[in-house]
Amino acid sequence: MKNFSSWLIMMFAFLFWGVRLIGTVMSTLGMGFLFEPADLTMEVALLFITFICICFFIKRKLWASIIYLAAHFLYYGPFFVSHISQMVSGGVASSVYMEVLLEFVGLIIPLISLFDVLFDKNRKAHPTDKKTDWFYKNQEYDREVDERADRNNYRTL
Fold it and tell me: DSSP secondary-structure letter at 129?
């Protein structure tokens, strides 16, 4: 993750995850917050899936971004469509507007993260592996060893 945009997307994803976590905890405690989770068990499962996927998103794994996108679209998609249809028909409470905003953010962040991983030029062009790069990509050390070997005049019997 060398781009500033990738860091921003990751930070927004963590912030959104934190807001959803606080909302879920407040809902289970019976206190009010900005929103009320539609399905508490699915919300908890989504929180775990999201945390794991964001951790792998840092490592630029494509499958993590796809799982992150699919989980959020399966959870927030139907609620977003139903809330939008309620808003179009009219006569909705003000809390629906906040839920639509959070659902929209829940749909847009995974989509942006998937595009960020897909269009990252360094992900496939220059993959790094710290376990082997020191050996295969260390040409300066090879030159230094070769020059020392050329200067040593050992006699053999």
Answer: -
